Give the backbone structure.
Amino acid sequence: MVRGLEAGRKAALIINECQIGLLNPKHASFPALAAQAVARDIVPKIERLAKAFRARGLPVVYTPVVHRPDFADMMPNSLISSLGLKGRHMAAGSLEAGHMPGLEPQPQDFVIDRTSGLIAFNGTNLDALLRRLSVQTVVLCGVSSNVAMPGNTMTAVDLGYQVVLPEDCIAGSDPETHAIIFREQLRMLATITTGDEVVAALAESAAA
């Protein structure tokens, strides 16, 4: 059993920033990140997770970054934000802001857009939604292991959630940094597992 997915605990799947402008190499703002997402084959693995959660009536939550067309609420207070402002990527209505094929939200799913910032919980109603749904465990997947996954994990832990990270369903800008962050940081905060193990744990929990 995966810690955090035991019978009696309600889990939600959070799919973070799995968008064309981040994961499709032809449209990527950060080519190295898109290349790693392809190399790690995360899209079909996340798609399988989403289907498993939906099949058991558990929430699937998408947390894309979708900037205002005028980028008015973005600040150049970090390199990543400055690059976003300079490139004017991921604006609402753009191709880049769209969901990756295979990971389009379904009618029963939840979508929480974030117009600025780096963490899905900050400046959004994600925490309020999860509490209304009586969620105790969040399974985080998507991108990136460099920024969003550590930030979302720390915030979720501070808010009282158990965090599960299917490592093979997450990508970063390079494999060495990804491995170090998981080994030296995220293992102290979350249950590190695989997509297959999450699917098996959901089946085991449903049968209990």
Q: What stands out?
A: The CA atoms of residues 146 and 172 lie 6 Å apart. The chain has one domain: 11-207. The longest helix spans residues 42-55. The radius of gyration is 16 Å.
